[in-house]
Design brief:
Elements lengths: L1 H30 L12 H9 L1 H13 L3 E6 L5 E7 L6 E6 L6 H4 L4 H7 L3 E6 L17 H15 L5 E7 L1 H9 L8 E7 L5 H11 L8 H13 L8 H4 L7 E6 L7 H10 L5 E6 L7 H4 L1 H15 L3
Parallel strand pairs: 3-4, 3-5, 5-6, 6-7, 7-8
Antiparallel strand pairs: 1-2, 2-4
């Protein structure tokens, strides 16, 4: 009888272990694989904030689609062919590099500000396709860990093309904001004069932990540890390799941090932590009351546009 109970207990443990492993594989696919089947419920307040600015968004997308552009390519540090669109404006010496969010695009994330940047401010735009997005190669999304080096290399490419005579601002939203803040801790060229970071998370570990706790009411152990193990083995990155808080500690050029207080996907405290860690004397943080994730500009356009105009006047001045 005792042996039977031992065998039953062992069988249960094996089944539980197999179930856990399958759950982790499923989460890995949803979060990290390019072709992962990721879906998220659209919160009514988020939909409302987007709908209220539909005309502005559609105007930006129409402009994006109507302008001539140059396809640019580079080879990443790990051998991927990456793609971006370059929209030259004027002499092309004032460039905003646009870093989009998770499973999104420049067309999707920056449409509302596209007319401000291109028409009003007269800047050239480099619109990235992050690895595992759009026309860029790659099987895995790494939440800023590898993308930070891609951004560094795009900045170097822009610098080399201009013979060093260019000013570049890194502008990111959501995962793209995390990536540009993490890029600030790399060997960026001196031509990068500032960073704009809208609703970025501090690290893959922190955002996955937040979702596990808040959405699934689960702790980090063992699921997050197992998914990170899969990421290290298959995608060659860890969730704690760096953080925005660590990266910005060596950045002294201007930074504009933006976050909505009603963001239920990425807590605004993550932006506050990066802001507090940044030693730049010229840094600004805007918390937009009631704004959902990525909706700060839509929620309070006047305040955000004023801040962006002032920021770009400083960092892209001729």
């Amino acid at each position: 009888m005792e042996k039977i109970l031992i065998w039953i207990a062992a069988a249960i443990l094996v089944l539980l272990g197999a179930a856990l492993w399958l759950v982790c594989r499923r989460l890995f696919g949803m979060a990290i694989l390019r072709d992962g089947n990721f879906t998220a419920d659209v919160i009514e307040d988020f939909k409302k904030q987007m709908d209220e600015s539909r005309d502005l968004i559609e105007r930006g997308r129409a402009l994006y689609d109507s302008l001539p552009y140059e396809n640019l390519y580079l080879t990443s540090f790990d051998g991927l062919r990456l793609h971006a669109r370059f929209y030259k404006n004027g002499d092309g010496k004032r460039v905003i590099l646009l870093s989009h969010g998770f499973r999104s695009s420049g067309w999707g994330d920056f449409a509302a500000v596209f007319p401000l940047y291109y028409e009003t401010l007269g800047c050239s735009l480099l619109v990235l396709d992050h690895r595992a997005h759009g026309e860029s190669e790659g099987k895995y999304i790494t939440y800023g860990i590898h993308e930070r080096f891609d951004i560094r290399d795009w900045a170097k490419l822009l610098t080399d093309r201009a013979g060093g005579d260019v000013k570049i601002v890194l502008d990111g939203i959501s995962m793209g904001a995390t990536a540009v803040l993490m890029a600030s801790g790399t060997d960026l060229p001196d031509t990068v004069t500032g960073v704009v970071a809208d609703c970025g998370f501090t690290s893959p570990w922190d955002i996955f932990s937040h979702i596990l706790h808040g959405t699934f009411h689960l702790g980090n152990f063992p699921i997050l540890y197992l998914v990170e193990h899969m990421a290290r083995r298959r995608a060659h990155f860890g969730f704690r390799e760096t953080t925005t808080v660590r990266a910005v500690q060596s950045w002294t050029k201007p930074v504009l941090f933006v976050h909505g207080t009603a963001d239920d996907f990425v807590p605004h405290e993550m932006t506050e932590a990066a802001y507090a860690a940044c030693p730049a004397a010229d840094r600004t943080m805007i918390l937009v009351e009631g704004a959902m994730h990525g909706c700060s500009y839509l929620r309070d356009r006047a305040r955000c546009e004023s801040a962006l105009r002032q920021f770009f006047a400083k960092v892209l001045k001729k």
